[in-house]
Amino acid sequence: MSNQHNQEKLSSARFSEATDAFVEEFTASIQFDKRMYRQDIQGSVAHAKMLHKVGILDKQELQDIIDGLEKVQSDIEAGKMNWSIKQEDIHMNIEAKLTDLIGITGKKLHTGRSRNDQVATDIRLYLRDEIDAILPEMTRLQQGILLLAEKEADTIMPGFTHLQTAQPVTFGHHMMAWFEMIKRDVERLEDCRKRVNTMPLGSAALAGTTYPIQREYTAELLQFDRISENSLDGVSDRDFAIEFTAFAATFLMHLSRFSEELVLWSSAQFNFIDLPDRFCTGSSIMPQKKNPDVPELVRGKTGRVYGHLMSLLTLMKSQPLAYNKDNQEDKEPLFDAIDTVRGSLRAFADMVPAIIVNREATYAAAKQGFSTATDLADYLVNKGLPFRDAHEVVGLAVAHGIQTGQDLSEMPLETLQAFHSSITDDVFEVLTLEGSVAARDHLGGTAPKQVKAAIKRAKDRL
Ligand code: ARG
Q1: Residue 283 a catalytic site member
Q2: Dist. CA 255 → ligand 1 center (Å)
Q3: Is residue 457 a contact partner of residue 159, using CB atoms and an 8 Å limit?
Q4: In the annotation, is 162 catalytic?
Q5: Half-sphere exposure of residue 317, counting CA atoms within 13 Å on the CB side?
Q6: Using an 8 Å Cβ cutoff, are 286 and 268 in contact?
Q7: 323 lines ligand 1 (CB under 6 A)
Q8: Low-confidence ranges of the chain (pLDDT < 50)
Q9: Prediction pTM value
Q10: Which of 43, 83, 116, 274 has the greatest count of CB atoms below 10 A from its CB?
């Protein structure tokens, strides 16, 4: 085996023939793992400092490695790196480039580690950085929702079950339902971060290493909160990627629900809201069209994130300990889940506070569909009727309303009294939309007073 060949492919000294060109390409991951270059270098610098601390690298060697890695990073960032399929992945590309730059010392960097613990460390560092970028964007979305909720705290709209008019609610209340979903997503992501922030470095290939490494020191340099406690698990655990993708799937599911409502509400048939033009596009053939592309696209993107969750679960299913090449397949689903979350989140955080509500339209819609029928039933219960009987009486009144094209609040008192004699003049207070929402005045209810209190609690917590 010539030294030349050895330079080309670091791990191939035992091989008597070169890797098949197609296999080389098929097994490489550099095409997609190069996005972790910063974390790979960050991990290597910390590892080198630890090797120096325990006496494996001398001062000069450490300095050469750090300087060399800095040069590699600036070359990458200047677009001057020649990524090579021959060097298979981000780890070997960077190490080969380092060795080109500083010579033999570069080959000492890999002492006491393996690509198996290196890659597991890189992905965790990468995902941690992404989570730390996502969390403030989640807050921005929450603030946007709160802004809209506050503006529309008194706005009345129909609340739906089965997409049929059910009872009036306030628009602010509807916004705060979205807020609650995002609040849970944030909790899930913060919880996921705890397990992401565990350091597998030091697990080496699978069994640990014979060198006197100090994992606590490396962990401290890399700001890991914890160190993995079993080397076999350390190199092969991808639970954290599954957890993040489960967060992403749930979050996109929530965004798909918002999206669906925004699409419906911005249609001419509902006309509840206007989406600002900058979030919409026209049609190439129908001049009148303004399409809600952003929410539609986010709704559509939900599917790919579900797919990534299923990919990762299936990737890990039945894998024997410890590292297997299968694990290289963890990156593309995870990266795409991250990108999809970030793009969709940005779009929503920008769009939500800019939504314009057509208050007349939501009010008029709430007036249709007998949305205060339950209020009339509750009124009769207050007058002493059992709820089931009240339900029956109101059912008859509604049937009459359908026949005559009148809302309950539009019927003369005598008409209402024909359905039950206990009905008196004060009934109109409960039949109005304002009266109906104001009456649901308890924690979690739709009364404007309660919605404002919920907004205040949310603001205090953000
Ligand atoms: N590119 C590999 C991956 O993404 C790095 C680890 C390779 N380790 C190995 N033993 N082949 O998983």
Answers
A1: yes
A2: 35
A3: no
A4: yes
A5: 6
A6: no
A7: yes
A8: 1-7, 10
A9: 0.94
A10: 43
Q: Kindly write down the DSSP assignment for every residue of 191-240, as one continuous string.
A: HHHHHHTEE-TT-TTTT--SS---HHHHHHHTT-SEE-S-HHHHHH--HH
Q: Are 186 and 135 in contact (CB under 8 A)?
A: yes
Distance 127 CA to ligand 1 centre (A): 17
pLDDT one-digit tens code per residue, 81-107: 999 999 999 999 999 999 999 999 999
By residue count, the chain amounts to: 462
Sketch out the chain's domains with CATH numbers.
2-111 (1.10.275.10), 116-216+229-363 (1.20.200.10), 373-431 (1.10.40.30)
Contacting residues for 395 by C-beta, under 8 A, at least 6 apart: none
What distance in Å separates the CA atoms of residue 149 and residue 422, rounded to the nearest whole number? 38
Residue 230 CB partners (closer than 8 Å, separation 6+): none
115 close to ligand 1 (CB < 6 Angstrom): yes
SS3 288: coil
Q: What is the whole-number distance in angstroms between the Cα of residue 136 and the centre of ligand 1?
A: 32
Which among 162, 284, 421, 442 is annotated as catalytic?
162
- What are the distances in angstroms from CA 88 to CA 9, 34, 83, 122, 194? 9, 10, 9, 16, 31
| pLDDT, tens digit (0-9, with 9 covering 90-100), for 126-152 | 999 999 999 999 999 999 999 999 999
Check if 330 has its Cβ closer than 6 Å to any atom of ligand 1.
no
